[in-house]
Amino acid sequence: MRVGIAADHGGLELKVKLIEELRNLGHDVVDFGAFEYDPTDDYPDFVIPLAQAVARGEVERGIAVCGSGVGASVAANKVAGVRASLIHDIFSAHQGVEDDDMNIMCLGGRVTCYALALDLARSFLEARFKGEPRFRRRLEKVARLENTGAR
Questions:
Q1: What's the CATH number for 2-148?
Q2: What digits encode the pLDDT tens for the residues 7-60?
Q3: CB atoms within 10 A of CB 137
Q4: Do residues 38 and 67 touch, judged by C-beta distance below 8 A?
């Protein structure tokens, strides 16, 4: 799978470790930065280009990492077509894809250990959207709100 990944200074260390392992698992990983530690950088500068690439279909899924994962989630969800969520557990990592067609998983580099982050990434990337009518109906409501502001 072609996977995009981005992080600010709070998620840089975790991002670097994840890239290596995801490539070892056979994924084509596109790195949206940061590429060096800069304590003054801002997560939107990396997360927004990742989210735009996901929305355009240039990468199939994305992983966004900041210190807590909250800012990355907030920023990613501002891009039309993105369904991002902060993930802390295996169930949500796959269920978010299966039921809600989540396409960006957000992680907290300062609160998620590497072993768990890798398990979460595997679960997220292995999951597939079920596409059941009730899930599609819900996503249509979200898309309508996103596109027109009306539910």
A1: 3.40.1400.10
A2: 999 999 999 999 999 999 999 999 999 999 999 999 999 999 999 999 999 999
A3: 9
A4: no
> Tokens for 39?
């304590």
Q: How many residues does the chain have?
A: 151
Closest residue by Cα to residue 66 from 86, 52, 83:
86
**CA nearest 34: which of 67, 57, 81, 1?**
67
Sequence spans of domains, the chain: 2-148
